[in-house]
Amino acid sequence: MSEDLKDGAPVPARPRGGFFAKVKRGLFMTHTEILEKLGTAVKEGLGFDESVLESLEEALLSADVGAETAATLTDAVRRRAGGSERKDLAALRGMLLEEIETLIASAPTPSGRPDVPLFVTFLVGVNGSGKTTTSAKLAAREKASGRSVLLAAADTFRAGAIEQLQTWADRLGLPLIRHREGADPSAVLFDALTAAKARGIGSLLVDTAGRLHTKKNLMDELAKMRRIAAREVPGAPHETLLVLDATTGVNGLEQARRFVEAAGATGVVLTKLDGSARGGIVLAIYRELKLPVVFVGVGEAVDDLVPFDPAEYAKALLGDDASH
Ligand code: GDP
Asked: Is the preceding omega at residue 110 within 30 degrees of 0, hence cis?
């Protein structure tokens, strides 16, 4: 827990370069591995041929970009390599970087924040992905940018989730709408929307359940919550962030797709990227979910949430230049 947040003091602005500083270790491990594999392969092959392309695919797989994304990127580089004069590591890195940038550009860029009196954000995702922690981190950011913030504890199912969010709210000096454990999440939401309107709140953050105790389908419940939000506040929820745990790897994306379809996710928060050598999952998210990564979580403290920068990410993934 950051000292700066004691007694709900404002969160200090993160110095520039925060993205690199926090994510570097994980990505450094990833890019060193990718480039080492490729560097060796290029030297052995004196240029690059099919064996180098195989090493590229392997390196991408070990960075956890997923089988399909690894194959797509390798095929693209193979096509380009055919027509290229240069066959050194820098050329290979350049081609790969451009293909990664193209892949990232294929998902929508995060839309600008609409100028509305009350901005409503839902956080969705499976249990343990980091929704509650991310709700608190986002609330701290919102507060630091001068907005009035209300939190809603609509994860009424996971034991301890309400108390966990209450602890964060107390630390941050922010109000929280809560019901008892096991209560109807939609009822919590309704109360939170009503309170937000009555109090002239600018930003409502809703922590939702990753599982439900009843047979009621979680996706139905989330759809119902979306309807209630839209009915009470036109255009709400304005943002639905799908919280994904980077350490679960590409296998988690199948489940994530359901949240995209049924819960209307508009962006991803990728948590637990700290110390993970699996930075490649970002590419699988762009390719398979067609959603922008908006923030990455890089630790458990409240200021361990950094805006995602695709261009910086692509460079960090492959090192600043081929000599790295
Ligand atoms: P929820 O079930 O989705 O609400 O998940 P929680 O917010 O309770 O998070 C689950 C665990 O992951 C907690 O121990 C968090 O402190 C931890 N966590 C969340 N985000 C991050 C992160 O970015 N990095 C690390 N290292 N841990 C995180």
From this structure: no
Please count the helices (runs of H) and the strands (runs of E) in the chain. Answer: 11, 8
pLDDT tier for residue 25 given thresholds of 50, 70 and 90:
low
- pLDDT tens digit sequence for 70-124: 999 999 998 988 877 777 788 888 888 899 999 998 888 887 889 999 999 999 9
Looking at this protein, which amino acid is placed at residue 111?
Answer: S
* 55: number of Cβ within 10 Å: 23
Q: Which bin fits 290, alpha (ψ -120 to 50), beta or left (φ > 0)?
A: left
Q: How far apart (Å, rounded) are the C-alpha atoms in residues 147 and 273?
A: 27
- Residue with the larger pLDDT of the pair 31 and 1: 31
Identify which of 22, 271, 308 to mutate to test ligand 1's pocket (most ligand atoms within 8 A of the CB).
271
What is d(CA 150, CA 168) in angstroms, rounded to the nearest whole number?
12
- Please tell me the predicted confidence (pLDDT) of residue 319: 66
Q: For a substitution probing ligand 1, which of 168, 300, 302, 303 has the most ligand atoms within 8 Å of its CB?
A: 300
Specify whether the backbone of 175 is left (phi greater than 0), alpha (psi in -120 to 50) or beta: beta
pLDDT at 31: 62
- Cα(200) to centroid(ligand 1), Å: 30
Residue ranges lining ligand 1, Cβ < 6 Å: 125, 127-133, 158, 161, 210, 271-272, 274, 297-300, 304
Of 1, 133, 276, 295, the residue with max ligand 1 atoms within 8 A of its CB, to mutate for a pocket test, comes to: 133
Q: Give the pTM.
A: 0.87
CA of 78 to the centre of ligand 1 (A): 39
Residue in this structure with the two tokens 């970087």, named with its chain if needed: 97
